Amino acid sequence: MKRVAACVFCEIVAGDVPAAVVYDDAETLAFLDRAPLLPGHVLVVPKSHIKTLGELAREQVGPYFEVVQRLATAVERAMKAEGAFVAANIRISQSVPHLHVHVVPRRKGDGLFGRSFQWIRHPYPSESAMRDAQRAIRSALGMD
Fold first, then answer.
1. Alpha carbon distances (Å) from 128 to 80, 86, 115, 135, 139
2. CB of 63 within 8 A of CB of 46?
3. pTM for this one?
């Protein structure tokens, strides 16, 4: 796997930085965002350091987005949501220059979209609340 030392997502993939992992396979890792838009917000990353979607090899696009699709369904089910928001920032607003797709559970009236998109982060109230979300998503994926 290609890794960049200064990349926090590469450090998470390597196990050097702790994360609440909800999915792990040979090519992809998914973990809870530590400052989620809403509880259950997951980041899906390729394990190799790839900066943007345009740099993802064509043969990797399908498998990567199959994982995103699987996570979107699991997050919705686990968090008892009415839907999900799936997004990837490319350069603009991409806080970590490592490809990542956000999967966020949605409910009507959750305040995520009003007159404009509100990218307001809300840390988990406790480590146990984060672990509860992690367990629920892993269970919905059939990983526990």
1. 18, 25, 33, 10, 16
2. no
3. 0.91
Of these residues, 41, 100, 102, 122, which one is catalytic? 100
Specify the residue for token string 């949501």.
81
CATH of domain 8-140: 3.30.428.10
For residue range 83-134, list pLDDT tens digits in order: 999 999 988 888 899 999 999 999 998 877 766 666 778 889 999 999 999 9
Exposure b/e, 127-139, CB count within 10 A at least 16 = b: eeebeebbebbbe
100 catalytically annotated: yes
Indicate the domain borders of the chain. 8-140
Strands 21-24 and 42-46 turn out to be unpaired
